[in-house]
Amino acid sequence: MKFPPNYLVIVLLIFISFTACKNDNGDDQVEDFKAENRKGLGRSAADLLSNDTYQGLTVEFVYANGFRPRESTINTFLDFLAARVVKPDGINLVETVISAPQGAPFTTEEIRDIEDEFRTKYTVGDEIAVFVFFANGNSDNDTETSVTLGTAYQNTSIVIYEKTLEELSASQNIDLGILEINTLNHEFGHLFGLVNILEDDIHTDHEDPNNSKHCVVQDCLMYFETSNTDRAALQLLMNRSAAPEFDPLCIADLQAKGGL
Ligand SMILES: [Zn+2]
Ligand SMILES: [Zn+2]
């Protein structure tokens, strides 16, 4: 395995937004039916994990032709959810195929606009909904030495930079399915509030002091190595034959919020 001369650092960015949607038109009314899905990251952790308020979970995958995740990724992801959430009405996966949005590389603001235009499933009644966009372009934050694989940017919103995953898979000879499930499950972990996103986890001492909102346990799904001086993050991915699981401390945090 050869690395490019410029090492590649993988950045799984999280954006913590504590403000509701705002716009520039002076019209800052969020449409009512979208309001529940316009909260800051981590705000729906307990709603996703427990059945205190919502009995069912709908996950909507939105993608353009050619950017659907692997079938094995979808199955593994659904098993991952079923092992963590208490949803007696079940977990419902909806797939919405769209024409490829233009304008890549995408800023998070553009990703929000794409969500606004194409998301069809919102939280309603006793069913909570999550939006996952598999982007047909890269992140605007990418540089020569770092790429963004995915971002959890709102309480029920995730973007997976599928085009970036495909490029990384091809150039670094990493299994695409491994990249997909790593990224998807990791970002969902952020929707679950990990690690200590709202500073209400019961095990605050496992938050990585050097990589905030991530876990110090190297084998944990929520681990992240952001060092600019080595290739640990990429090597970690390359050495994986399957997606990592939550470590016991992260699981304890999820259980404290009503998860399995
Ligand atoms: Zn992360
Ligand atoms: Zn952990």
Kindly list the characteristics that best describe this protein.
six-stranded mixed β-sheet; alpha/beta; 29% helix; binds zinc ion; single chain; disordered N terminus; Collagenase (Catalytic Domain); 260 residues
Give a written overview of the molecule.
By secondary structure, this protein is an alpha/beta fold. It has a single domain, classed as Collagenase (Catalytic Domain), CATH 3.40.390.10. Helix content is 29%, strand content 17%. It has eight helices and six strands, in the order βααβαβαβββαααα. The protein has helices at residues 32-35, 45-49, 71-82, 108-118, 162-172, 176-191, 232-238, 248-256, and strands at 9-14, 56-64, 90-98, 127-134, 146-154, 157-160. A six-stranded mixed sheet has the order 1-5-6-4-2-3, with helices on both faces. Strand 5 (146-154) and strand 6 form a beta hairpin. Helix 3 packs parallel to helix 6. It is globular, with a radius of gyration of 17 Å. Residues 1-9, 13-27 and 226-230 have low confidence and may be disordered. It binds zinc ion (2 copies). One zinc ion (ZN) binds at residues 206, 215, 217, 220, 222, 246-247, 249-250.
